[in-house]
Amino acid sequence: RLCELLDNAGRGWRKLAEVAGAEKRFKCSAEELEMCSLKVLEPRGSPTQCLLQLLAERDCTLSYLLGCLERMGHEQACRVLSSAVQDMIRITVQPESQVVTEGTEVSLTCCATGPPGLVYQWFCGRQEVPGATSPELVIDTAAPGGQPEWYICRVNCGATFTFSRWAHIQVEKSSSPSSASGYCPSMAGLQIVQQPQPCRLAEGDTLLLECRAIGNPPPQYQWFRNRCPLEGAQAPHLKVKLVTTAERGSYSCHVFNLFHEVWSQEVDVEIGEGSRQTSVTPHLLCSQQSSHGHSTVLDGAGVSHCVTTAPSPLLAATDKVALLIGNMHYLHHKQLQAPIVDVHALSALLRQLDFKVVSLLDLRKAEMQMAVDEFLLLLDKGVYAGLLYYAGHGYENFGNSFMVPIDAPSAYTSEHCLCVQRVLREMQQRRTGLNIFLLDMCRKRNLNDDVIPQVGALEVTANIVFGYATCADAEAYELSQGELSNGIFVTFLKRWLLKDEKITVLLDKVAEDMGTLEITRGRQALELRSNLSERRALTDPIRPPGQDESSARNLQWAKAHVLPESRHLRFNCGVTVQLGFAAEFSNIMIIYTRVVAAPRDITKCEARLTDIPEELDVDLKCTNKESPEELGSPLAPVWSLGCPSCCLYSRICGLQKLRQELAFTVCLQYHYQGMDDFVEERQRVNVGQPLIAKLNLQ
Which residues form the Ig-like domain (predicted)? Predict the structure, then answer.
């Protein structure tokens, strides 16, 4: 019906494309508009249908489309669209399961869009919760009548209704966490309430360890044995049936969510021989081990044999550090999509392996150089320095690889880029224990650049690993499967990254997996270069050398990860606004505002951000949005889990460009009952230098 109305009219599909294009991500190129217009040559072709398909692929919402039709003044099209969707009720904010301490209050939120007059009703199990008819349900876990369990919300308008998903509220007994848990209430939003306990078992018994935590977003778990991650052990409890002596060792649990992490205490699990086992046979006896690492063994005939028993040394790092850079929005070159998702995915995995991670998006040349310089400050003798991961445009000339910053000119040369081999030479000077470069970029020859850079001789250190996403003189690809697709390299790399394998073996397995992909066979294949002589792995444990050195590195890393504290702003009219913060990357921050209290005579109010510093990469059309998805970030479903409902969201990019403290204005607009005009109040807010801005990369 819309196609009939818009295909031939003067206020038709071209006008719709123009109005919708006011939002940057919905703007159609000249080629796309021409493709739409050519649809009239097909028997059943429709330019409007083609345009709507383009908008749908960019996640255009029905409400935005309706707003465009209203701005066009096309009343008939508005009526058609409104009547088609008026009966639809869509849950926009789902209630989340939570783990809470007994005696505290917890709130669940369910928000929906649809026709006017939506009615909410909360249920506990199959029973209605009396009086629970608003989007937010507050539960007192200390209230008599039994502890709450499963909750669900019904939203209806007349006979039309829909249900939210179930949310489970688990109540834990309050207990003080052990000092070994690393929990500090002033620094983390995650608390372990039940620690695992040491145990002594016989072979054939069942091992059961439990670690419980509370936090928002809900905590995730990863169990470790002897400081190596256990595959598939990602629940609050660890259960192993029919244990053998192979399961003995030290166990701990890594608890984390999007913003925080904490470790449980490390406990010993001792496993001896059960009553079903026979005694040790007398036909094989060992004498004391000699000082040379040999044992004398007597067999049943009394003949002695000398056996070497010296174990291989356990390799450990003094620290593990990673710098991840993803360049997407180039000023003079093709835009990329995958780096934002690739960098985020690797950040999450490396943090599980105890890496200190700095993740940055869209850097200019000077900013890339400064980021590398700050990265080098984190390195020291024995540190596993490398993960230097780069995703973006690149090239390779004369055996040297170059990373292309977003401000590189159209005919760039090595002068405009960063040479990977120069970075390696500087890393070697820091005497690092392992240098890993993962380069997710093209390696085609740059015909504009005929200069052979003088990098200088590299040392023979036997600790260098290069993992190239593609072969020399070949391109690296990303899969076009929507906004949340990884590049091909990371798609396979993340399957293996947590495995306890020598890094070169791990990358070999990634290469084998990549070779199974039909669409890139003969076009892209991982290339591994290494002179690594020891069995170094990303899972190797950390053994800090000294408190002073370790503290200095921790401080340098922590500076790049400090978010401003959430605060409440009180305005003269009596309204209180919560100002909160979330980190997407080390240089991208989300700011959200939420009205938490207002006098009864104020019927409508909202708090918006204005006067944001001009040097930051802030698209004004991506500020003060009612839902995280409207910000245009494919990672919104991840970081928004930790944000409250009913907020206005703004995405602040390019924090590395901040030359001074971040200051902006919170503008409160409201009106009183019986008044049509809005009243406005403003407050100036200074949040200091958040995240990477503290390192003064300018």
Answer: 89-164, 185-270
